[in-house]
Amino acid sequence: MKNSNRKGKVGEREFAAVLRAAGFDARRGRQYSGSPESPDVASHALAWLHVEVKRTEQLRLREAVRQAGRDCGGKPWLVAHRWNGGRWLAIVDMDFLLQLLRGGVNSSIPAVRKRRDYNVFEKQAKKWQLPVATSDPK
């Protein structure tokens, strides 16, 4: 087994332990073919979220985000990253972050993806009964 594969497995277990310490039922996911059914870390409580773990010194951010977007199956995605001696970092899509900041995410709500038009987000937010800012953020 390559050192990078071993480091990846260790990273997935470490991040699952971080989630367990926060009260989630997380474990290392099944590893095959990169699909929504095989996230790096799986949790029943977070089944609505696709987690991609990168435990590397030099994160290739674009590559990691593309992989998460490709493998997520339409769910919101999160790239968890840590380098040696560093803290865990979470990278998410801006639309998803805004959804979180506007009042949280219900696990039954799909992510707003690839939306550049604020009016589209506003319509979706009303549909999902999320609080919406009173002015268009430009």
Q: What labels describe this entry?
A:
about 140 residues; alpha+beta; Trna Endonuclease, Chain: A, domain 1; 2 domains; 3-stranded mixed sheet; two-stranded antiparallel sheet; 4 helices; 5 strands; globular; disordered C terminus
Tertiary shape: globular
Cα Rg: 16 Å
| Euclidean distance between termini CA atoms | 49 Å
Unreliable stretches covering 5 or more consecutive residues: 108-121, 130-138
CATH topology of the largest domain: Trna Endonuclease, Chain: A, domain 1
Q: How many strand units? A: 5
Mean pLDDT: 79
Structural class: alpha+beta
Main sheet properties: 3 strands, mixed
For the record, the count of structural domains works out to 2
Order of helices and strands: HEEEHEEHH
General description of the model:
This protein has 138 residues and is of the alpha+beta class. It folds into two domains: 3-92, Trna Endonuclease, Chain: A, domain 1 (3-Layer(aba) Sandwich); 94-128, no CATH class. Helix content is 36%, strand content 16%. It is built from four helices and five strands, in the order αβββαββαα. The protein has helices at residues 3-21, 61-71, 94-101, 118-128, and strands at residues 26-28, 41-43, 50-55, 77-82, 89-92. A three-stranded mixed β-sheet has the order 3-4-5. The longest helix has 19 residues, at 3-21. It is globular, with a radius of gyration of 16 Å. The termini are far apart. Mean pLDDT is 79; it is low at 108-121 and 130-138.
